[in-house]
TrEMBL record:
A GO BP entry: exocytosis
Record-stated family: Belongs to the SEC3 family.
Record-linked InterPro entries: Sec3-PIP2_bind, Sec3_C, Sec3_CC
Descriptive protein name: Exocyst complex component 1-like
UniProt-recorded Gene Ontology molecular function terms: phosphatidylinositol-4,5-bisphosphate binding
Domain of life: Eukaryota
The species this protein was found in: Aythya fuligula
Length: 860
């Protein structure tokens, strides 16, 4: 304990100028061994304040103040029981703290310290309960008795000592100055002071005796004053009794005024609530009659029903407190409102459903439009008939959403029958106008173009060619008719969408135009923004339009099939027309596009792209598999001509198209197929020279692509030029071997010996390549024979080369240059290998040039 006491004083309280009076080791009741130390401390400096401090010991054996309470806030000390063995006690501050002491002696000492401080400094403000008198009033330990006695004595001395006032100090000084000679003799001085005190006491006693009469007079005056005070008190008591009754009356009056005020306030509030209920829950008699009659056929009755429905909605939408619904009048009124609402809902649903059925069963008048003029059906009269009922549909939507949700479905089911008949008739007329036939021969016209390989419609006859002009619609008629169909469909779908959005109060978020570039998926750069999956566009308006126009997409698909069958490559016209129409529709700001129509056209555009790609794939396959005629002697291959005709036709069709990505891909595929077809000639068994045929065809493709200037085919144009040059070189080298065949064969052997390591000057000593053998070979090619061979070669080239390509001068000049090069090479070999032999050719370079000039001039 001594070490704990000193440690607490040294480490905790001395630095804070606090004096430790008592300590006790405790823990919270019920939480044993979570030890804390309660310390009673007092300020070392005045004014002294007393505190109860809770100290905790951390893991490093360091003391830390956890909480501190001013002792003045302590209200009650509860010892829990008078039993000395109990270690529990409670301290009541603003909150009750329950503690358990480590020993009963510490508990008694701690409570005794609190009791002393309570009596000495707190005027007994703390209440002690369940505390034995022994710990509070009993004897302490000897060292504690001595300590308490010393503290008490010091406190009494401090309370007994009083400092002299300045006047008292001055009197003492004056007295000491007066009796200064006697101050040195203290005994004499004390005797003198005692004598003076006796004299003063005697004088005071005499003065008191002499003033006895005055005292008697003063006492009588005091008695009279007391009697007067008694009378005043009696008077005040009477007045107080009177005022007490008045106060009771005033309190009663005030209470009654307060009650009257509450009555008036309650009455005002009651009147306000009654006026609120009677005003807002009151439906006019004329409105009740209008709802009961439900006259929806006449304009005046419909107008009255609209006004009555709006008034009924206003009454039923008023927010009232739940308790008001228990009032009989309010409950009856609400029941009446609900009855009127249900009856009118049934009447309105029945009436509007009858109108839907009548419109859906309406007959399509075939004589409304002339045969040669195509126009889509117009439902403006139907919409005008239903427009006055728009306020009632809005009322029904708010009043009964479940019942309203079936109304658009009923409309779609009935109107879809009418639209099916009208759309079918519309596309039937469009097909007849496209094929230029009446209804009886329409099926025949559809089946006739299907025979692709027949003589009536050859597979490769394009629109505009003489083979396909007979009994085939004008090539511009497909575009014209498809554009007219799309123009007629747009206002039809847009008007219907706007009507149902307004009539059924639907909200349709129009998708934004997004053009995604790149990728090989369906949403390519050429795809319209509407070609998203249908699940993303399944909004209320779109779902309703899909049901109303359920036959639009199949009929449009069938019409596009007819367009595709008019001639083999009409799929190009369909693709361009659909693409321009879709993107032009989205780019137009005159009218908002129909998301449903845009979705349908987007699907048709994908179908058109698929048909176009299938057509191009078939064409590429046929070009690759096409075989050249075995008797072919030269000229342009049929696949090249087909490619040229397709490019001319497609470029004319796509001339005004906004996008041509699909066409560029098709051109590249077809060009690759044509090149493959030309390359396959190397393995073909042709009577004409293969290099010559390939040279002519590549030259023709190069000239054609230079004329067209198609950006995507620039690489193919350069490739065609390169291949043309390669095959012309091969052709020239092949045919030049004929005029000097044996001479070339001889010198080929010479070059082979040199390559094997034989020295050039030793070649003439080889038996097969001696000077005599060389002279024999040269003698076979005199100038006349060379000129004759060149004339024969010129006639043969002129015979096989195609006159359309005009390649004869070019090939003949290339042959002249090649022969001159060979002549120079042979002369050089003779000079190196047969030097000094005097062997020369029978003709010179000048002779060769004259031979070529004479042959060229003779053919002009």
């Amino acid at each position: 304990m001594a070490s704990l006491w000193s440690s607490l004083e040294r480490d905790v309280f001395n630095p804070q100028s606090k004096k430790l009076l008592e300590t006790i080791c405790v823990w919270k009741t019920g939480k044993k061994k979570k030890m804390s130390i309660l310390c009673v401390v007092v300020d070392a400096l005045k004014p002294a304040q007393q505190f109860l401090v809770k100290v905790k010991v951390d893991r490093g054996e360091q003391y830390k103040i956890a909480y501190r309470w001013p002792l003045a806030e302590l209200k009650l000390v509860d010892g829990k029981t008078l039993d000395q063995a109990s270690l529990d006690f409670d301290l009541h501050f603003d909150k009750v703290y329950k503690w358990t002491a480590s020993s009963s002696d510490e508990k008694k000492t701690f409570i005794r310290c609190l009791w002393k401080l309570n009596h000495r400094f707190l005027s007994r403000a703390i209440k002690f309960v369940n505390v034995p008198s022994c710990p509070v009033e009993g004897r302490q330990r000897p060292q504690e008795d001595r300590k308490d006695a010393a503290e008490t004595e010091s406190q009494e001395e401090l309370s007994a000592y009083q400092e002299m006032t300045p006047k008292e100090a001055a009197d003492v000084l004056r007295l000491m100055e007066e009796y200064e000679p006697l101050v040195n003799n203290s005994v004499a001085f004390a005797e003198q002071l005692s004598n003076d005190l006796h004299v003063l006491d005697e004088a005071n006693l005499r003065a008191i005796i002499s003033s006895e009469k005055q005292v008697t007079k003063l006492m009588s005056s005091i008695d009279e004053a007391l009697a007067e005070v008694a009378r005043v008190e009696e008077t005040l008591q009477v007045y107080d009794e009177l005022l007490g009754s008045v106060k009771q009356q005033m309190d009663h009056i005030h209470q009654e005024n307060s009650l009257l005020h509450h009555i008036l306030s309650n009455k005002t509030k009651l009147m306000d609530e009654i006026l609120f209920l009677t005003t807002h829950l009151d439906l006019g008699k004329e409105h009740c009659e209008a709802l009961s009659r439900a006259d929806l056929s006449s304009p005046s009755g419909l107008k009255a029903c609209v006004a009555a429905a709006e008034a009924l909605a206003g009454c039923m939408n008023i927010q009232i407190q739940p308790g008001y619904r228990k009032l009989q009048a309010v409950a009856e009124q609400l029941i009446m409102f609900e009855t009127l609402k249900q009856n009118f809902e049934n009447s309105f649903i029945s009436h509007i459903t009858n109108i839907f059925e009548l419109q859906g069963n309406a007959q399509v008048d075939a004589l409304m439009n002339p045969f040669d003029k195509l126009s889509a059906p117009n439902h403006s009269l139907h919409h005008e008939e239903l427009a006055p009922y728009t306020p009632l549909t809005a009322w029904l939507r708010n009043a009964n959403p479940v019942l309203f949700s079936d109304l658009p479905k009923v409309y779609a089911q009935n109107l879809s029958r009418l639209y099916d008949r009208e759309i079918k008739a519309f596309f039937e007329q469009a097909k007849m106008l496209l094929l230029g036939r009446r209804k009886g021969s329409l099926q025949e016209g559809l089946e006739k173009p299907m025979v692709m390989g027949s003589r009536q419609h050859p597979r490769w006859s394009l629109p505009g060619s003489r083979e396909g002009q007979e009994d085939t619609p004008d090539r511009g008629n497909v575009i014209k008719m498809l554009e007219q169909v799309l123009r007629e469909l747009q206002p039809l779908c847009t008007t219907e969408q706007q009507f149902i959005e307004k009539f059924f109060h639907l909200s349709q978020n129009t998708a934004e135009l997004q053009v995604l570039e790149g990728g090989e998926n369906m949403a390519s750069a050429e795809d319209p923004p509407c070609t998203k999956p249908r699940s993303q566009l399944e909004e209320p308006t779109t779902r309703l339009l899909s049901e109303i126009f359920s036959s639009l997409e199949p009929e449009l698909r069938g019409f596009l099939d007819v367009c595709n069958k008019t001639h083999p490559f009409s799929c190009l016209q369909v693709l361009v027309t659909l693409s321009d129409s879709v993107f032009g529709m989205w780019g137009s700001s005159s009218a908002p596009p129909s998301s449903f129509l845009n979705t349908v056209l987007g699907n048709m555009l994908l179908l058109a792209k698929s048909s176009f790609n299938k057509c191009i794939g078939t064409l590429c396959k046929e070009i690759k598999e096409a075989k050249a005629p075995s008797k072919m002697r030269g000229g342009i291959l049929p696949s090249v001509s087909r490619f040229e005709e397709f490019v001319n036709f497609s470029e004319e069709v796509f001339r005004t198209a906004q996008r041509r990505g699909e066409l560029d891909k098709a051109h590249l595929r077809l060009a690759s197929s044509v090149f493959s077809s030309i390359n396959s000639l190397s393995s073909a068994n042709l009577k004409a020279n293969t290099d010559m045929v390939m040279m002519e065809n590549f030259h023709h493709i190069h000239c054609f692509l230079c004329q067209k200037k198609i950006q995507c085919l620039e690489d193919k144009k350069r490739e065609a030029k390169q291949r043309y040059s390669e095959h012309m070189e091969k052709y020239v080298i092949t045919y030049l071997g004929q005029p000097l065949e044996k001479l070339n064969h001889f010198f080929e052997g010479v070059k082979a010996r040199i390559a094997q390591g034989v020295k050039e000057e030793e070649v003439s000593f080889q038996l097969a390549y001696s000077k005599q053998e060389l002279r024999k070979v040269i003698e076979r090619y005199p100038g006349k024979e060379v000129k004759k061979a060149l004339e024969t070669l010129y006639r043969k080239i002129h015979k096989y080369l195609s006159p359309e390509e005009n390649l004869l001068p070019v090939v003949w000049h290339a042959m002249e240059q090649e022969l001159i090069r060979q002549y120079q090479e042979l002369e050089d070999l003779i000079q190196r290998c047969y030097a000094g032999s005097g062997i020369t050719m029978d003709f010179t370079m000048a002779d060769l040039l004259s031979y070529f000039n004479s042959i060229t001039l003779s053919s002009v």
